[in-house]
From TrEMBL:
The record marks 168 as: Important for catalysis. NAD(+) binds at residues 212, 243. This is Glutamate dehydrogenase. The active site is at 128 (proton donor). Residues 205-446 form the Glutamate/phenylalanine/leucine/valine/L-tryptophan dehydrogenase C-terminal domain. Coiled coil: none annotated. NCBIfam families: PRK09414.1. InterPro entries: Aminoacid_DH-like_N_sf, Glu/Leu/Phe/Val/Trp_DH, Glu/Leu/Phe/Val/Trp_DH_C, Glu/Leu/Phe/Val/Trp_DH_dimer, Glu_DH, Glu_Leu_Phe_Val_DH, NAD(P)-bd_dom_sf, NAD_bind_Glu_DH. Belongs to the Glu/Leu/Phe/Val dehydrogenases family.
Amino acid sequence: MDVSAHIEAVYADICRRDPGEVEFHQAAQEVLHAMVPVLRAHPEYVEARILERLCEPERQILFRVPWVDDRGTVRVNRGFRVEFNGALGPYKGGLRFHPSVNLGIVKFLGFEQIFKNALTGMAIGGGKGGADFDPKGRSDAEVMRFCQAFMTELYRHLGEHTDVPAGDIGVGGREIGYLFGQYKRITNRYESGVLTGKPVGWGGSHARTEATGYGAVYFAQEMLATRGLDLGERRVVVSGSGNVAVYAVEKVHALGGRVVACSDSSGYLVDEDGIDLGLLKDVKEVRRERISAYADAKPTARFSARGSVFDVPCEIALPCATQNELRQQDAVALVKNGVLAVAEGANMPCTPEAVEVFRDARVLFGPGKAANAGGVATSALEMQQNASRDSWTFERTEDQLAAIMRQVHAQCRTTAEAYGADADDYVLGANAAGFLRVAEAMTAQGVV
Ligand SMILES: NC(=O)C1=CN([C@@H]2O[C@H](COP(=O)(O)OP(=O)(O)OC[C@H]3O[C@@H](n4cnc5c(N)ncnc54)[C@H](OP(=O)(O)O)[C@@H]3O)[C@@H](O)[C@H]2O)C=CC1
Ligand SMILES: O=C(O)CCC(=O)C(=O)O
């Protein structure tokens, strides 16, 4: 059987059926490319049309979200939830509130989530959702009304055994609280496990807020260890300054590294003293200001509205903002400046051309579906705690997170080698290992 031709045909079909969904095409292409050696070893998955079934979401929900702003003006947004694959458990994945959100972006994120969630080894399927709502500059009351309107439609598709959303860009503890409150009001059920990322005081898990950023740093640490290196004293650049970025900075500093730059959509910040985490949290989490406010408050820091944060020399780069933020020219600059490892805290932040540059230069590269899997894994730990009406300590939860990240890392390497690639090929390893777990479950469950 000509496996390459089969894969080409599947990809062509995706592009024909869903033209314009460019981010979804990009995410699918990466996975499909990695499937060549896997399908050669498993022709039964070609026969069972596993790829075709995986690339078509089980359910896509699009809905109107009407709400009223503080001035009494009626606003209308579009809401999305893509329930991509439920072979391993309830659909699981975050909600993104950002003006750029469209179906293609939600599908790319939901598709990634299938393989990421499988890699964690936990009982969670893949899904993602969101809205083209921009929370920036909105009052708490407006965000609450939007969340209530969003949940007024979405609630009918959710359930702790059905579909369990969490946060993503623009959705943090505040939004999860409002969404949970509306779900509870409509259903008259206190169903703790229907959303994750809840505040710790009422059903949230310790370490969930920190988990994605911490996990990405653990993954980078594991990659470095394969070459006898560690994080101590290393110069690190982190892009973004949201949930993932802030806790990546925190863990790098705890492990002895020094983050010298981070960013937001307005520009980037360099502080050779090392990013002051207290100040960063105050600017971004408390005051919700632009990152330039950090430089206004600290004389050792400089803010730049032009250029890229990846121009700042570093040994480790952690892209933690958004998709396709690290382009070919950024990768070339990083390599020229001696980068050793890149771990994706965000989902698909590196373009395919950038990944190629890292591969050619033998830079250790951890793709998001492996490197940022700590967030969703800790969400699954939150679901476990909710199901048993228990609450674990921070230490216990973080120990489990660290163990899961070590397991994900090891699984990538052994799977890459098993399919004839170098153990450093984390892209092949992550995609193949995630795929195999889902394909096995789909096969056992029949054509559904
Ligand atoms: N939260 C989680 O647990 C997980 C998140 N991820 C991924 O991590 C990434 C960051 O998510 P998270 O930290 O939760 O989100 P946040 O909303 O907390 O932070 C996002 C950060 O990225 C910046 N950013 C967002 N969009 C753009 C853009 N178009 N251009 C430049 N900068 C941008 C934001 O800047 P500004 O404030 O100016 O918009 C902000 O600094 C996303 O890719 C997400 O999918 C992956 C796994 C789990
Ligand atoms: O915690 C979750 O359920 C979702 C995390 C997420 O959206 C992601 O991994 O990209």
